[in-house]
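Lecture notes, structural biology module. Today: joint structure prediction for complexes of two components.
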Amino acid sequence: MLLSRRRRNVLLPLVAAVMLAMLAACGKSAAPESGGGAVSPGSASSAPVKVRIQLCWVPQAEFAGFYVAKAKGYYEAEGLEVEIVPGGPDIVPEQQVANGSAQFGVNLVGSLLSHIEQGVPLIQIGQVFQDTSMVLLSKKSSGIDSPEKFAGKRIGNWMGGNEYEVLALFAKYGLDPMKDLEFVKQSFTMDQFLSGEIDVATAMIYNEYHVVLDSGYKPEDLYIFNLDELGVGMLHDNLFVNRDWLKDNGETAVKFVRASLKGWKDAVMNQEEAVDIVMDFVEASSTTREHQTTMMQEVAKLVRPEGLADDRILFTNEDRFRLTADIALQFGVINEPADISAAYTNEYAEKALEGM
Amino acid sequence: MESGLLSSVKGEEAVREQAATEAAGAQPVMETAMGAAETTAAEPATELPAAKRTAPPGRRARSAGEAAGRVVLPLAAGALFIAMWELKVFHRLLNLQAYQLPLPSAIVRAMRDNFDILLSYAGYTLTEAILGMAIGSAVGFVVALAATAWPGWGAGSLFFAASLNAVPIVALAPIMNLWFGSGMGSRVAIVAITTMAAMAINAHKGMNMADPLALDLMRSYAARKRQVFRYVRVAGSLPYVFTALKINTTAGMIGAIVGEFFISSRGLGYLLSNSIKVAKMPLGWSCIVMAAIAGVLFYLIVERLEKVFIRWHPSRRT
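The predicted structure, tokenised, for the full assembly:
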């Protein structure tokens, strides 16, 4: 018995050593793999440079410009072979770009700021939506016509980075989401809102709002809370890259922005054609052409709001970005003031414009 | 099969007698057999204190050192592990950044800053796991009971339980949300379904592993079917039942946490998935730590119960 215990004492460090060696082997084998994933610009000019863009949601008109650029060969013309990777509820584009699975990412600015604060080496190089695209909805029959009346109600949100503007709104009206109301997770359908399980729902103006309308509600049946007007609107869909990758791939980034810019201009100008293209990429069973057409109209307004000059599409507006960062700081998305000059740059959009 | 066994021993008195004594080994009510087994099983346990009393000082020091080693070595290994983690040895080995694998100090800080919410969410998730496991295990036990009492159609229900076990939680979660809403009910249902099969299969096995000789003995006492169940089959299945319960503590925690990933506004699973999405990795890791602590506590409670309930069983008499 004594002997066997002693032998175990010898075995334990041995097992630990073997496991460590295995871990080390894993680390080593993983390193070149991720290195291979991050594509560097082709040394031979003939071979297209392969890059990936990670979207924050499933294929839909929200991302029309990227699909148009791909379908019409704008990326190809720049010598890029672009793979557009759909997102989903559990995909965080910031993390996909950080680990090299994708070179470009699209998500919300608030989420980007939060990741940058955690030390993820990211930088925004474009702003797709110039406004917030989020609204809150309540049924007129519920009588909830102002945020003050949220008290004691069930307010839904998708969470996972979508909750900040709503939390900001609560804070602005002195509502504690842990005590004064029920802040609950909303599914990606609008069923909970339609069935009355939640009193106030979050909706994207280009998507879920129209799902509610399609379910038989008329705009006059609903109270629509515009987060921009309520002073808590944050910038939505952006375009960002890995800062370390950008150092050696500035040219690829310029080419990508240039082609995307062309794609977005086409999508805004010729929405019919854009919807045709998007329909080739969507999951046919989950959406309709009608829905994508409405979405395209709303998205066009976000990409090129009235009064925005043509050559400012995809550019980051410093004031809006700063406002987003302020709201993010005020309501705890980030804990330290963001270094705005390090968080975004228009340099690549400027260079892209020069070559057009 | 029982009757065949019966007839084969019929008339051989000596064998019959021996069988009865042996059968008693699986019988909680037979004091003599238990006592006999206890003395043999207790021998190694009493050896150590006895040795301590009479051992020369050198030997005692060694055993004391050994006892210390049993505590100190694992602690030292744990401390070394955490130190290596804090000093980013693993980060270098696995080529990770601090934002991908937060340092223990950051995790501790996140735990301290969010302790109230972590505690309340751990309680919430544990409640789901315990309720779900209680319901699932009870149903599983009834299925096993039925399958043993009426093997004809009961076996079908066992098969049904096993096939339910093959349904992945990810498929179950949305359906249960649809049925029971986004409250606690849907996770309780998920846990109940995923824990049922382990109990049904284990308990069924336990009930049918009853010593045929014990069954013979009961028959010779003219015991009724209900009594046979109570004293032999159910009692004999207890070690298997507790094995299933121990498996189900883990399965229950997994079911509750994964269920919360889908539609939930509270609980460790919800906070874990949300923290990771919003880049609050240290908070996400604190959820993992809390889930591990809650899971271990849950397991220890069931293990403690096992000791209380089947103290009579040979495997427990150490």
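Point to remember: Chain B touches chain A through 29 residues (CB under 8 Å).
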